[in-house]
Amino acid sequence: MTDIESHGEPAGSAAGAAGDRPQTSGRAGTPHSAAAAETLAAACFLVAAVAAVALGIVYWRGGQTQLEGLLLAVAMGGIGVGIVVWAKRFMPDDEVEEDRHPLVSSDEEIAAFRSDFEHGEQSIVGRRLLIGSLGAALTALGAALLFPIRSLGPRPGRGLKRTPYAAARGRPGGVRLVRADNTPLRPNELAVDGVVTVFPEDHTEAADSPTLVIRTRPSQELQLPADREDWVVSGIIAYSKLCTHVGCPVGLYQAGEALLLCPCHQSTFDVLDGARPVFGPAARPLPQLPIAVDDEGYLIATADFSGPVGPGFWDRDR
Length: 318
Ligand code: FES
Description:
By secondary structure, the chain is α+β, with helices and mostly antiparallel strands. The protein folds into two domains: about 1-150; about 165-300, Rieske Iron-sulfur Protein (3-layer Sandwich). Helix content is about 30%, strand content about 15%. It has helices spanning about 30-60, 65-90, 105-125, 130-145, and strands spanning about 175-180, 195-200, 210-215, 235-240, 250-255, 260, 270, 275-280, 290, 290-295, 300. It has a seven-stranded antiparallel beta sheet, with no helix packed on it. A four-stranded antiparallel beta sheet has the order 5-6-7-8, with no helix packed on it. A hairpin with a 4-residue loop joins β5 (about 250-255) and β6. α1 runs antiparallel to α2, α1 runs parallel beside α4 (about 130-145) and α2 runs antiparallel to α4. It is elongated. Residues about 1-25 have low confidence and may be disordered. The structure holds FE2/S2 (inorganic) cluster. The site of FE2/S2 (inorganic) cluster has 11 residues, from loops.
């Protein structure tokens, strides 16, 4: 049996009366040094709390990356240093050994264990200043870390699923297709194998609206779903220009095979077959735009695209 190690316990105390059982105790040292350590740890926690509050204020007032990083470091460092001081000064960490004994504890051992347990508990619950300051630091830091939720920006709502072409639904004249200079386009201005990028009238800056209008060859037979047969005007068909992989503009048309190529990762779409992807990483067809001709002979969209444009997102199909 090894000797009992005990620090700061008077000889013959309750702990010492436990005979040959192992003992552990904290390293609070003298009351003066213990109070100094407690004050230091509490000061660290309070500094962390102030830094966390300042972090929230800086973020709320518009943010400043370097200052936010510094304040976050102070907040987390203060909590860390405070916990280390607390642990080193007040938490038992002595290494002890004990020979194996009969497993049944005597009444004295049970009493001694209870005494030790309550002594350790007091190391934690008896230090209101430390617990209060640590709680303040963690609460302030937790609140500050919630602020970046605001940086997620406004809810997209249906903005990812609608384009300005949606205004065409139910409107007799639809929405005219225009070039980048906002001039409308007639079918006979598009040669066979020709491709033009168009936009909804008055929305040439809309990032979700670039559309490829393609005139296929008379010899090329379209294989569209039955409900899209009237989405075509004299062999002219329109698809979103935004690749369904990660959104690059699909700009290369291989007229002989009626294939659209995305230059970013070589996704290839079959124009005759509803822009189905036939090669590359894109997994979805390019959304098709239903088109017609208005009373003045210009190309119009009669509704929005057949699906959300561009890359997929979490609730695209809902
Ligand atoms: S963005 Fe078109 S293939 Fe990747």
